[in-house]
Specification:
Number of strands: 11
Shape: elongated
Strand order of the largest sheet: 9-10-8-11
CATH class of the largest domain: Alpha Beta
Strand content: 15-25%
Number of domains: 3
Radius of gyration: 24 Å
Number of helices: 10
CATH topology of the largest domain: Hypothetical 12.0 Kda Protein In Nam8-gar1 Intergenic Region, Chain: A
Structural class: alpha+beta
């Protein structure tokens, strides 16, 4: 398969990572890699939603994940310095950068952190997915400072389109939110804002009510009353206020008490 002048990729794409001034490349099946990246993204999002201090997936976790088969993703575990010219990476370079010459381990680094030359259709699918995630986060966490209300999803989408804002396919949606908000501030009045809310949930609904509150906000203070009710002061994105209040009203049949302390 290897020609010293140039390699025919034969339907595969190149996965590349640059570290320490060196380049490492491997051959990747685009469809298999695409599915694996979806699994990785879902795992990261699950950890972020759970408030885990460790949202990043490690190479060791990736290698041992039964849902991801690196043998199916990579054409082989051969590592190249310049794949198209058939120039393999040296053991010295691999050892210096990754502390190993094991191609399977290095493939994990490329899949997690490398640059993958996706097809046009794959890039478009990923961009649209990331864009929707970013807009959803902004619509729930940002407000119009002029009227203290959240912007509708469509208004944020239009501002991003007007600003011709680029979405980074290699970053999580959460990592790009602040940068996107800064860029659309010249188009619409918008800022990320936290609100502080006092909540009192009646005895009969404390268990389920606590879970609802914990999912949408950060509990800063809490106290159990003598009658069994639960009182708390919580901090949450301003755009999520109404969602939290609506859910608690529905759960308690309108018996929850809330008071906005700071916005």
């Amino acid at each position: 398969m290897i020609d010293r002048a140039r390699i025919d990729l034969g339907g595969y794409i190149i996965g590349r990572i640059e570290k320490g001034g060196r380049t490492f490349e491997m051959l990747i099946d685009p469809e298999q890699a695409w599915e694996a990246k979806k699994i990785i993204r879902e795992e990261i999002n699950k950890r972020l939603k759970a408030g885990s201090a460790k949202s990043r997936v490690s190479v060791e976790e990736l290698i041992n994940d039964p849902k991801i088969n690196l043998e199916m993703i990579f054409e082989s575990f051969s590592v190249f310095e310049d794949l198209r010219r058939g120039k393999k990476a040296t053991d010295g370079d691999m050892e210096a950068i990754f502390n190993t010459t094991d191609g399977k381990t290095i493939s994990g680094y490329i899949l997690l952190d490398g640059e993958i030359q996706w097809t046009k259709a794959q890039r478009e699918e990923e961009r649209n997915k990331k864009l929707k995630q970013i807009i959803t986060i902004i619509s729930k966490n940002a407000i119009n400072p002029q009227n203290k209300k959240p912007h509708p999803y469509q208004r944020i989408e239009k501002a991003i389109d007007e600003g011709n804002i680029k979405i980074d396919l290699m970053k999580n949606a959460e990592e790009q939110v602040d940068d996107v908000v800064k860029k659309i501030q010249s188009i619409i009045p918008i800022r990320m804002e936290q609100a502080e809310l006092a909540i009192k949930i009646p005895t009969s609904f404390t268990a389920k009510g606590y879970n609802v509150v914990a999912q949408l906000s950060q509990i800063k203070k809490e106290e159990w009353q003598s009658d069994g009710s639960w009182v708390a002061v919580v901090s949450l994105p301003a755009g999520l206020q109404m969602e939290l209040i609506d859910k608690l009203n529905k759960l308690t049949h309108g018996r929850v008490q809330t008071k906005l302390l700071k916005s």
